[in-house]
Amino acid sequence: MSKVIALANQKGGTGKTTTTVNLGIGLAMRGKKVLLVDADAQGNLTDSLGFHEPDNLPVSLATVLTKSMLEEPYESDEGILRHAEGVDLMPGNIELSAIEVSLVNTMSRETVLRSYINTVKDRYDYVLIDCMPSLGMMTINALAAADSVIIPVQAHYLPAKGMTQLLQTIAK
């Protein structure tokens, strides 16, 4: 049974991507099959893993989510990149910004990412979703797809206040 974990915080610079990379590679080093999902239009997770031009990749998370929304067929491993340190990556890029807008008018818009993850998660022990620093539709999708959430946060007043807001959103 696969565990799906979203790494989320609406504040940027809290360590979501760094935690995703290190946790993913650490799990892979322990023999676990891990898929990292870059659900951030900035593509920082993709870039961090050495794919330095995420906007030029032929297939990304945006590609498969678009096909899913349009009910077009796609291969379950379409676009997944293999990394030398033992993790697989579904890359993200700027095209996810357009997905944010498209999701607003999509039926079952909160579960589009979950539908995609359900097609691949049986091959993995862990699916880690690196979220964008917002509470937009992609982050809502990641939360709806996840079994649990890791919220990287600094021990300061404003980040803690933001974490409280995120916890309220997760509860909803």
UniProtKB/TrEMBL annotation:
Keyword Transport: no
Keyword entries, A-Z: Hydrolase
Recorded catalytic activity of this chain's protein: ATP + H2O = ADP + phosphate + H(+)
Molecular function in Gene Ontology: ATP hydrolysis activity
Family matches, as InterPro entries: AAA_dom (IPR025669), DNA_Partitioning_ATPase (IPR050678), P-loop_NTPase (IPR027417)
Location of the AAA domain: 2-171
Record keyword Hydrolase present: yes
Subunit structure: Dimerizes in the presence of ATP but not ADP; ATP-binding is required for double-stranded (ds)DNA-binding. Interacts with DnaA.
UniProt similarity note: Belongs to the ParA family.
Name of the protein this chain belongs to: Sporulation initiation inhibitor protein Soj
